[in-house]
Amino acid sequence: MSLALTGCMGGGGSIPSASAPITQTESQQGAEAHPKLLAEFGGRMTGVHADYVERVGKNIAVQSGLGNAREDFTVSLVNSSVNNAFAIPGGYIYTTRQLVGLMNNEAELAAVLGHEVGHVAARHSQRRQQAAQRNSILGVLGAIASGVLLGDSGIGDTLSRGFLQGSQLLTLRFSRSQELEADELGIRYLTNAGYDPQAMSTVLRSLALQNSLDAQLQGRNATIPEWASTHPDPASRVSTASQKARGLSGTVTNRDTFLSGIDGLLYGDDPAQGVIEGQRFIHPELGFSFTSPNGFYMVNGTRAVSINGDGGQAQLTIARYDGNLETYVRSVFSALGGNQQQLTPSSLQRTTVNGLPAVYGTARVNTGQRTVDVAVFAYELAPDRAYHFQAITPSGRMSTFTPMFNSMRRITSAEASAVIPRRIDVVTVGRGDTVATLARRMAYDRAQVERFRVLNGLGANDTLQAGQKVKIVVRAR
């Protein structure tokens, strides 16, 4: 159904020179899934940034050879802080605003969207579903949107897939050969459109560097991107894409046009979805905050926040609430068990956390490979609204999350109003400006230089020239 471009790479494969027009069945599939997918990824953005992305996407789609490509393709900029791009049958292609903010010219944007067009043109979703005899596209999307983390596959299978990665990160996997085929098709589309075909390798390089920096800041392993843990690291794709583009014509990058087109774009977490600041998560609109344990990192999705570390994984999310916290917790356990096994807490305990009514329970489960503890800790924030952590650790280790469970609290109006979003600000390098001086303007309290270099595709030894345009990230007051 979809892919995380940032984690894909493949082996060989035959490259079709032209593709059959999008069928009525494919159009119907995509039209049914489209609104659900938009909701899962923060909604479709509108305005000048979205219009620019759509225009570039439709222009590159024409190069696919699909009939009426400009009219048949739907290109969406989605409001997500995850570096991701994906496609579904029927000509629906998507990129997150975060991924666009990482790019440095129009050719790179065309490369990412061209990769997605390639998946549609080569019918990768359909071929993948047929080969694996998977659920229908809507069935897969329904499982993603529902937020059922363990589902029918059972707890043991969920552990092997990476428990509680966050709903935005669950995307249908393409094969390695399909990923390379989409890369190669994207490079072909770039060349035909007159763009620099090396843009595929440069955007992949930026993705690899961003993944490495994120891992460094979060204290985790950099070899596997969090947005696509089952896919190859984008770093392994850089040289392959560069080799494929070598000797091909095309020089257009439209760097200044691109930077003008994304100036002011929201970057990082949207306060409407809550924000992560270090170890703290704060949601100004819903009015609560919590702190993750030391040594863990968080990933913010539109429906949930995941907390990941070597000692366990957890997620804060929401379920249907009828005013009874005990019933709420039992229903969450039941959903986690899915159809494979009955999952019930050994007991339920009622307590109060920072003035919030709360109920928690735990269950010990033998997955066949190991014994784990599963906990659900729920809080009532209003008579008709409750939230809960669901967590999993090796047996006897659930105390790892106790400080986090006890940190949940309401925030004041002053705390809520102090949450200000970040945005891309395109500036012109002045005489005397350096990487260091411009990096100090980045709206972060650490790794300013490293963030600035990755954001602008600069190597460790690259310098700036007066008159050059670069991106910084600032608070949007």
UniProtKB/TrEMBL annotation:
Keywords: Hydrolase, Metal-binding, Metalloprotease, Protease, Zinc. One of its GO terms (molecular function) is metal ion binding. The keyword Metal-binding applies. Its cofactor is Zn(2+). InterPro entries: LysM, LysM_dom_sf, Mito/Outer_Membr_Metalloprot, Peptidase_M48. GO terms for biological process: proteolysis involved in protein catabolic process. Pfam families: LysM, Peptidase_M48. One of its GO terms (cellular component) is membrane. Residues 425-472 form the LysM domain. Residues 226-246 are annotated as: Disordered. PANTHER family: M48 FAMILY METALLOPEPTIDASE (PTHR22726:SF24), METALLOENDOPEPTIDASE OMA1 (PTHR22726). This is LysM domain-containing protein. It comes from Erythrobacter litoralis (strain HTCC2594).
